Structure formats: C-alpha cells, structure tokens
Amino acid sequence: HEAMLVEKVVHHLQRHLDSDHLFVADNPVGMDSRTKDMMKLLQIERNGVKIVGLVGTGGIGKTTIAKAVFNELCPKFGSTTFLSNIRESWKHALSKMQLMKQLMEEIMDDRVTQIHNLDAGQRLFRDRIPPKKVLIVLDDVDHLNQLVLIG
Description:
Blueprint lengths: L1 H16 L13 H12 L19 H12 L5 E5 L2 H4 L3 H16 L9 H11 L5 E5 L13
Parallel strand pairs: 1-2
Helix pairs in contact: 2-3, 5-6
C-alpha cells in the first residue's frame, strides 16, 4: 500500500507542479466520468496515432474535457502541446504559420526559424519529429483541413 500511496502523491505533485498543466474549471460537474470515457477511447497503452474529436454546441464543456484529459495524459508522453483557438487563428494566413511554428517548437523542443507556408511546415515537421510519444491537442477545430497542422 505504501508504494501505491507514494505513486499517488508523486502523480498529484507532478500534475500540480508541471508547467504543462492546464487550468480546468473549479468543480466541473461530471468531469471525472467524462475524462475516464475519453481515456478509454484513446487506449494510450496501444501504439499508433489516435485522433478523437469532441463535437457539440458551444459552451457544453468540450474544451474543459480536453484540458482534463491533456492534464491526465501529459506525464505519459515525451512531448506535449495544447493549441487553442484553432478556428480563429485559421482565418489569418500568418496565424496558420504561427500555429505550425508553435506546434513544432513545443514538440521538438527546438527553435524553428521561419515557416513560409504550410506545405514546407509539414515537411519540416515530418522530417524532424522526435522518435518519442507525442500528445497534440488542437482545440476549437471546425474544419478537417485544419488538421493539416499535424500532417
């Protein structure tokens, strides 16, 4: 029992001290069960790419669920990033390149000088993505073409 207690304390401290930890609303109703449902869908113990979409009208808690799942999964991945407001950023060409740059810098832990277009960014991302498990969350995606960010 001591080992389990130590593991729980370490996990709790890691979640609260980690700079990647995202704020989730105080006392969100039903969050634990929704987070567990998402964890089952993701099956992170299996290798491979997983893509899960949370769909619904605005204000029902999709971002809150995504943040809670992100916080739960962060310790299990080598690199993580949570890119928010994709829909708004996608309206501006420069913002698209900025999103791609942010994604690469956070996943590769390296500075990316300049991205001139999304195709070049995708090539660079594929060529330089590290050989480790990565967690990428794109929040507020409203068109499939926005998934071009992750190749």
